Amino acid sequence: MLSRVKVFNFFNKHKVNITILAVVLLIANINKNIGLYNHETCIIENDVVSYYAYLPAFFIYNDIGLTFKDSTDFSCKHLIWATKTSTGKYVIKTSMGVAIAYMPFFLVTHYVLKYTNNEACGYSPPYKIALVVSSVFFLFLGLIFVKRTLRLFFDSDWIILSIIPILSFGTNLYFYTVYEPAYSHVYSFALISVFIYYSVRWVRDIYNVKYAIILGIFIGWISLTRPTNIVIALFPITLFFLQHSIKEIFNIRFIKIVSLIAILAIVIWIPQLLYWKYVTGNYFYYSYGSNERFFFDNPRIIKGLLGFRKGFFIYTPIMIVAFIGFYFLFKKNKNLFLAASITTLIYIYITFSWWCWWYGGSLGMRPFIDFYSLWSLTLASFMYYMVRFRYKFFRVISILLVIFFSYMNIEYTLQYKKGRVHYDSMTWEAYKCVFFTKRSGCDVYSLLCCPNYELAQKGIDRCD
Fold first, then answer.
1. Are 95 and 225 in contact (CB under 8 A)?
2. Backbone phi and psi for residue 457, each to the nearest 5 degrees, phi listed first
3. Residue 97 lies in a domain
4. Domain residue limits at 419
5. Measured between alpha carbons, how far is 14 from 8 in angstroms, rounded to an integer?
């Protein structure tokens, strides 16, 4: 009996960590059962081709300029996408932040294969397994730091316990950990989770050198992974100004701390700058070309949030609850509300100002996955007040909404994999066909509106 009590107490004490571990192991098992790493065209595909190219180029082919891709005896030629520069070398379109996240898992796999006399060209199934493992690891890291951040503001483990499965299965984070695990989003989610936690800790103790070092490294890595995500730096900046006096900005000790953060962020970017210098002749290089840009005078915010092509609230409906949670976050912590709101509004504006505001083929609005750790604060605020609603009716309705919206994410995932939710051409008519009409009742493909990418680069959306 005593041992049972000890076991119960252990599980009760560590229930959040056990839940995180269970979620991660379940997703790892789903990855194993699906086995996408055994398919030639999966895992290292689309954007991942560019993210990943740094590693085989540097560690296997000793040619970061990628000139080896022109060799006729290169068996993996079709997996290198790059643009030839005036130097005669090739430049990779994306920055190397994701490759840094892949690197430990890649190196272990590569040297195990190399010293066991197996094929080590960089693109065989073991390398793809390494990428899947890296994705699951960063999911674990992200969830751990979501938990740690929430514990700074919420004293209920049960509130935190509800957030973990909602983020993992009730949002498109699930899709990008299972079906397209090597995309940048789960890595950005993890890095921003760490950054938010240490941002709060640093604002509470602004002279702490350890926190400053971590913030500097992670804001550098976050922006190197996805440059627009540097917006997350507004979160600690806003919190600082809300919680400290202006006089502290001119404190020599504080100036040294901020300088340390900035220097470390720049140091993280040095390999990228040296790479650009080597392959292009310039330290700074815009790899997306003149046709890909932002239209800040015409952001597609309404379509991005509510449109049926990729609408954030349509295809990740649990985030409706999270954004309602901004009201409850305001009631709980006004400074945190302001910091989260300002960061969110500017990120939304920048995200939907990009020429391809729907971000190509994807399930839902994939750039927003990166900020789910920030919005876990608003989601937790909703859950915190939900259990305190005066009327039981509202508590029941809220619980049912959370369950239904989370279920809808799984349904969207299944329909997307079947090809019924189209990757970039959904319309209201097609949506009705999939979800409100009998499956055999209409032809969804006849109801799609395929965007014209060339017109979009000029700021014109043919499906308006």
1. yes
2. -65, -15
3. no
4. 291-464
5. 10
Q: Which residue has the tokens 């379940």?
A: 26
The total number of residues shown for the chain amounts to 464
User: Domain count of the chain?
Assistant: 1
- Determine the Cα angle at 36 with ends 68 and 314, to 5°: 110
Amino acid identity, residue 335? Answer: N
Q: Is residue 5 part of a domain?
A: no
Classify residue 35 as left (phi > 0), alpha (psi -120 to 50) or beta. Answer: left
Going residue by residue through the chain, which has 464 residues, state the pLDDT in tens, using 9 for 90 and above. 557 777 666 666 778 889 999 999 999 999 998 988 888 788 998 899 999 999 999 999 888 988 877 775 666 555 778 888 888 899 999 999 999 999 999 999 999 998 887 778 888 899 999 999 999 999 999 999 999 999 999 988 889 999 999 999 999 999 999 999 999 999 999 999 999 999 999 999 999 999 999 999 999 999 999 999 999 999 999 999 998 888 888 889 999 999 999 999 999 999 999 999 999 999 999 988 878 999 999 999 999 999 999 999 999 999 999 999 999 999 999 999 999 999 999 999 999 999 999 999 999 999 999 999 999 999 999 999 887 777 777 788 888 999 999 999 999 999 999 889 999 999 999 999 998 876 566 888 889 999 999 999 999 988 87
* Burial of 118: CB neighbours in 10 Å, binned 0-12, 13-18, 19+: exposed
| Cβ–Cβ under 8 Å, residues 181 and 130 | no
Count CB-CB contacts under 10 A for residue 159: 21
Q: Can you tell me the distance from the alpha carbon of 140 to that of 147, in angstroms, rounded to the nearest whole number?
A: 11
Distance CA 188, CA 319 (A): 18
Question: Is 177 domain-assigned?
Answer: no
**Using CA atoms in the order 190, 192, 194, 200, what is the torsion angle rounded to 10 degrees?**
-150
Cβ contacts of 38 within 8 Å, gap of 6 or more: 125
Distance (Å, whole) CA 179 – CA 448: 23
Integer Cα distance of 334 and 267 in angstroms: 34
List the structure tokens of 109.
């796999």
Task: Provide Rg for the chain, Cα atoms.
Answer: 23
Number of H helices, E strands in the chain: 19, 2
pTM above 0.85, yes or no: yes
Q: Are 380 and 402 in contact (CB under 8 A)?
A: no
Question: What phi and psi, each to the nearest 5 degrees, are found at residue 322?
Answer: -60, -40
Least Cα distance to 253 among 199, 198, 208 occurs for: 208
Q: Which two tokens stand for residue 119?
A: 């094929």
Q: Is residue 307 part of a domain?
A: yes
Residues 6+ apart with CB under 8 A from 176: 183, 185, 186, 363, 366, 369
